[in-house]
Amino acid sequence: MDFEPWWLIAVPVLFALGWIAARVDIRQMLSETRTLPDSYFKGLNFLLNEEPDRAIDAFVEVVKLDPETTELHFALGSLFRRRGEMERAIRVHQSLLARADLPQIEREHAQHEIAQDFLKAGMLDRAELAFKQVLETRFAVPAVRALVRIYESEHDWPQAIEAVKRLRALVDEPVPQLVHYQCEQAQAALSLRPPDIATAEAALDAADNAAGALRGQVRGEPSEARIAMLRAQVAKAGNNLEQERVHLESVLTVAPDYSGLVAEDLINNYRRSGHEAEGLTLLRDHYLRHATLDTFNVVFREMRAQQGHDTAWTFARDALRARPSLLGLDRLLEVELAMGDRASVPHVLSGADLSLLRSLIHKHTQRLDRYTCKMCGFEARHFYWQCPGCNSWETYQPLRVEEAR
Fold this sequence. Notes:
Blueprint: H1 7-35, H2 38-48, H3 52-65, H4 70-83, H5 86-97, H6 104-120, H7 124-132, H8 140-153, H9 157-170, H10 177-191, H11 197-214, H12 221-237, H13 241-254, H14 259-272, H15 276-289, H16 293-307, H17 309-322, H18 326-339, H19 351-365, E1 371-372, E2 379-380, H20 401-404
Antiparallel strand pairs: 1-2
Helix pairs in contact: 2-3, 3-4, 4-5, 4-6, 5-6, 6-7, 7-8, 8-9, 9-10, 10-11, 10-12, 11-12, 12-13, 13-14, 14-15, 14-16, 15-16, 16-17, 16-18, 18-19
């Protein structure tokens, strides 16, 4: 390549221009830095040292000196919210929204922040209105998620369902709780007097569709078990014993671990149709394959009533030997005390002895006779599809504390 003489002029000129630009940038940065109050840097230093209280005091001082610092307002509001000082967080974000010169993008940000303040403060009505105002902005997805939580906490299932549908239109992700929202609608319809069968069936059809869309993405046993149990309630309300039995038995197939939740209803169904022996055989065989304490209780009690004491005790002894359980023994003794005939108890225990033994065991089993949330550890005597402690869905195992260990 030939040498061009003008390069001797161009190269120094380009170098000089770069040097001048760098100097200008540095001077501008230094000038901007000098305009920032010392409190700003103190606040940053406190944050880095994990001293949020002192950082807040420093940032408040900066805001007083320069009310136009929007980013600092946002940071300060977030710090207040994290500390639980909701009134101060709301005031910070309201002061931003009151500014007529606030750019639209910053106004949307402030609206979303104040909506979060209202939500954390428990002001659900105001939070709902605030989140709705940012549904057409870049904050649409977090706003819809928040609306789902609000409607869920208010048990407003129709609104929660609509919010989930809106969320699905924005992001492609499974929302397993949608099935339970529709099941809650069905449960509410069945709780009416008289029950609204048509509404319950429509809600369960929608739940079936939602569960079908989730197959292969999330574990479907809990939701399918709940749908079957509610369909059994619909059939029972319509005095359709055969359909009720079909739905209850389907739980044993699609969600065998949930058999304890339907065992009582299933044996009652067989008894009403005059086939209690067949029902007992079905439950006993299922227990041998999928043992749960609740199923054991039903089988032992029904076997005691149908086949007598000796057969029931043989079954109980073998079951407890295979799976030792204080709760199982406690329930067994409870049945014996309730039914009388104590002279036939093995080892010829007297009624007083049996009662004493049961009272001693019962004291130790009370804390084991509970269901536990896998997320937060909240314990309850009744089974819940949604944890009362952390509001998570499907986190209760259909097993008692003693069994789940």
